[in-house]
Every structure is written in structure tokens, then in C-alpha cells.
Amino acid sequence: MSRVIFGHVKSGINTVRKTKLRSFWMMLGVVIGVASVITVVAIGNGIKQQISGQIHHMGKNLITVHPAQLQADSTKGSNGLSLLSGLTTSGPLTAKDISAVERVPGVAASAPLTITNGTVSGENGRYKDGFVIGTTPDLASLLNQSLEYGVFLTPNDEGTNAAVLGQHAADALFNTDVPLGRSFTFHGERFIVKGIFNQFDATPLSQQLDYNNAIFIPNDVSERLTKNTAPTYEILVRPNSEDQTEAVAANIRKALDKTHGGQSGFAVLTGNQNLTTSNSILSLLTKLIAGVAAISLLVSGIGIMNVMLVSVSERKHEIGIRKAVGATNRQILGQFMVESSVLSLWGGLIGVGLSYLINIVLRIFTDLKPSISWEIVVLATGISLLVGVVFGTIPALKAARKDPIEALRSE
Amino acid sequence: MALIELEDVSKLYGFGDATTLALDEVNLSIEKGEFVAVMGPSGCGKSTLMNMIGLLDRPSHGTYRFEGKGVSRLRPNQAAKIRRDKIGFIFQSFNLLPRLTALENVALPLTYKGMSSTRRLKLASQMLDRVGIQSREYFLPGQLSGGQAQCAAIARALVNNPKLIIADEPTGNLDSASSRLVMELLADIHKMGNTILFVTHNPELTRYATRVVYMHDGTIIHDEKTALGQVATTARKVLYTLPATSEEDDLAGVSALMKALPDKPAVRRKRKKSVAKAKPTTRRKPVRGKRS
Fold first, then answer.
1. Per-residue pLDDT tens digits for A19-41
2. Domains of chain B (ranges, CATH numbers)
3. Could you give the ipTM of this predicted complex?
4. Which of residues 104-163 of B touch A (CB under 8 A)?
5. What's the Cα-to-Cα distance from A125 to each of A119, A122, A220, B119, rounded to whole Å?
């Protein structure tokens, strides 16, 4: 029996070879389906890895304080959708909160990130893409990011118009490679560039701002310029030791509860919680898009069925001959089932190849770093095979039930 | 024990008013080793009879015994297995699979036996050698001449060592030279002890047969044994009086063969009784088997 099946496989491959164009159209659906499923999941995985990489870079013990209720209730089975909507609501964190966080016992360092509105004009004119962040000298260590040139803001700089730039901001504002000591105008005041950060790892879809576009100025200057109206986007906190992370986070929550008078307009997250938050959002998105792609795979199965039906009626004569020389119904059924499976499996394998190609293209031309796991490759290939078997059944049954005389008479 | 025994076998096609009687209580018994030619005008039921004997079709009534076993009510799969192991088919239009080489075509029946690829290709190659076209092994059917294609088809029919070979007008699409080649080949096979059943329109070819069966309107009207190498006596009349049909005969669909038949053949007289009972009064039109 295995030899018969092997013969079917051979005949299937032969059919694919000899009816190239039709086979191509037939497989195209499977190719696209498999490639898109793998690519979507790979992009999702890639982003997850990048985010966790970033969080590991900053240290797991980093505590972030966000305005609004951005909660990671992964333990309560968060469905992710509430997280997505949670991202959009915002409430204020104020200077009071910042000083309250600083005073919490166990806090080694803390830095606010205050987005300061206003127009920045450098040597190249207005700078549109970036943003100005008011912060404190602790930020560089909290972000665990080194500077390419110069130094970060020091306690001595507080109250002075000093600034540190992200790389993209430096490129956009100035013509020189190393614009240390150069100046730009913000809120009508001159700011001197003190340092330039190394490139921050780009993290698509993350909740973090892209610091490469940022201009960092002392927080008190920011408060002075905006008369304390600038919204604090985030407070970064590092506890004295890693073991105390959760305890310190709890303390911060308590302290902020006090300043907010019991209103919970904020969220305190540890590195791990941050990770779960982004992961659950990403998983949801990935599942959604992969689901759509999976439907396209299913639709491609219907395409396979149609082409196989045409093929069966075109090859009626062949079926007649095969039956006359002694093929049983089951052998004819097997032949056509194997043929459609071979076709869709080929489609699946081509789809896998295509997804690797897409992966390379994405890595070259975008910030995305998709990672294709073998599980998804096996799964997608398996599904394509399944599609071939399932949707090949009806045409194969039709072929097997053909009356040999009728089939022989047709040309 | 006869290889093939048909007892009152009838075949009906269609329903109600459109019912066609393709075979009408046919009785036929063929011994092992016979070389039977079946003749008759188009639509007389020759092909239906061949399909029936070849187990491609089932009789509507009557019993069919192949090697003494009743096979008139076999399930399709059982019939397929008997076809595979005991019957070889040769068709007028060769019926080789166009996408397979001659060798693969010949090996096809063995595929369904589950034989290993090397073994069946070896056997097929031997068989092609036997029919004399081994040098064309890797040609596609489209690249073979008609005679070569029919030889390949004969090789395919022979490859599983069948008890019975059924050839439905094996020379119908061939020129006279190729026809001779094919018939000589069949005669050779017959000499090896195979039973061969073939349909033909050409009276000349009855010289290869040991027995000639004439059919008309679904019944066997004449059945004679002939010596090998001699054209059957009834058929000879046709051969040497051609053209024997007038314009009127053409319009009525009477063939030269019918005109040449003895006026009152023994078989015909015997059949008359049952025919009178079974036959509908209206004249039946041959609907199926245009090619036969």
C-alpha cells in the first residue's frame, strides 16, 4: 500500500510539473496565506523581543509611574482590549507627585519626563519632529544609556539653559557632526548643547517615546518656561536594590495615593509588569491579524477545491483508463487526495520561503526585526497540508465515483 | 469449465420511455484459449458486451460466470481487482495516458498491485521488448505512431499476465500495415495460450480468429468456428461481394454483413421464441456505443 501511495505522490508531483500555470494559481492562495500568517506572527514576536530587550536594557528593577490607569492585570486574565483603550486616557502627574516619589524610602534615583510644548529653532530652522522633555540628572543612569559626546545634565545645570540631544534631534537641528556648545532657541531662550546620546534602540509599537528625537532640558527650566503646565508623561524610579522593587513600587503607590487624595489617576509599574502589558497587547494584535491571515488560508482551500474539480472533469478519460486497468475507487480517491495535498504542501513550503524573504526585506528596510519561530513554520505548513486534504476530499470523491465506461467514452 | 459463461444476460439503459435494450438475453460461453472475433453493425451491443465481459459494466439481468465464479453482482472494488489481475484491455483509441511515457503506461496496472517501482518498470520493459518497441520506452504516446501506440497498449494489457484479453476494435484507428502488425501480435499471444476476445468491422481479420460471433440488435445471431488463417465463411461472403448494400439498405441502416448472413441461421431460429416474448414491438434505435 505504501508503494501505491508513493506512486500517488510521484504522480502528484508530475501533475504539478506538467500543469505549471494552473498549479501556480492554485497554490498562490496557500502561498500568500502561509506567508502572511508566518510574517505577521514573526513581526509580533520580533517586537515582543525588542521590547523585552529594551526593558532588560533598562533593568528589570526600573519602576515607571504613568498617569492614568494603565494596568497590567495579567493575573486577572486581562483581555488586552481594556489595555488598548487605557493607553489613550490620561491624567496629570504634577510636580507634587515628582517630589513625593523622590521622598519615598528605598528610592535610589528618580527622574520625571515632562513633555514641554513649544517651538524649537536650530541652525536648520524649526525642528518639527521632536519634542522637548524636562528631566533631572538621574535620567541617564535610569535609562542605562551612555552619551556619544559630552556629558548629561548635572545637578549644577539645574536652572540653566543646558540641553542634551538624541541623535536624530542633533542631526535635524545642526549641520555639524558634533554640535557640542552650539545653541538653539526654545520659548525665546537660548539653550546650549551639552551632550548627545548614543542611538537608542528603536522599538516599534512600544509605549516608550523614541528618545532619539528628544531634547532633554532640566525639569525646573521646563517648569519655569511653561509655568508648571507641562504634563509629566512618566516618572522613572530605581529602587536601592532589586529585591525591593515590588515593595518600593507599593510605597510609591501609597505616597501618590496620598498626594492624589485617594484618586487613582496614575499607575505604578515594575519592569516585569511593563513587559506583560506590552506583551498582552501585542499578543492580541498578532492573534487578530494572524486570524485574518488564517482565514485567507481557508479561502485558498476553496480555490484548491475548484481547481481540483476542474482537473477531475478534465481528466475524466484518464480516470476511465486507470479504472479499466484495475484501479479501485479507493486508489483513485487516494491519487487525487495526494495530488491536492502535494499541491497545497508545495504552496505552503513556497509560502515559508517567501516569508523568510519578507523577513529579510523587513529587516533591511524597516526598524522591525521579525523573528520566525520553527513552531509557526511547522504549524503553517501543517495547516496548508490539512487544507489540501480537507478541500481535496470532495473532488477526489467525485473522481473515485466516476463510472468507468462513461469516463472512458469521454475525450 | 468455460472461462466465460453468459446466461440470459440483458442490459438496459435509461428509464421509462427512453429505455434502450443494449443486450437482449445473450447466451455465450467462451472456452480458455479461444480467439473470438465479434462482428456486427454499429450499435448492435458489441461494446456493451465487451464492457460486460470485462467487468466494467454489470448486467441488468442474467448471470455472468468468470472462471466459474458468479461476477454479475460484484461491487466496484472487487470488479476492479479482477480487472487488474485477470483481464487486459486494448482499445480502439489506444487510451494511453498522454503524460506518462510508454514504459510508465505499460507499468500502470502493476502500480495498482502495489509492486515496487523498479520491479514494475523492469517487467514493463520486458513486455515492451516482447511487442517489439523497447526502443521507444521513454517516448510519450504522442510521439509514437499509431501502430507503436497500439503495441504499447497491448503490452499494457499483457503486463499483468491476464487470463483474458479484450480488444475493442484494436485496428480501428490503424492503417493496414499496422493492423497486420497488431493482429500478428495478438495471434502470437493467442499461441501462448491466452484467451482473446476482439471486436472488428473488418471481415479480413477473422482469419486470425478461431471463432466468429455475429451480433445484431443486442443478440447473437450467428456463431461459427473457423480454422486459423481462414476468413470465416460468412464473413467471406461480405468480403467478396462488397459493396453489397444498396442506397435503400444504407437508409435503413442494414450493413453488408447482414446481407451476407445465411438466410436462416440456426442460432437465429432458436432465439426467435424468446425474442418474440421479450422484444418490445417498437424498433429500438441504437443510442449508445456509437463507436462500436
1. 777 778 778 888 998 999 899 88
2. 4-278 (3.40.50.300)
3. 0.81
4. 108-109, 111-117, 156, 160
5. 10, 5, 26, 84
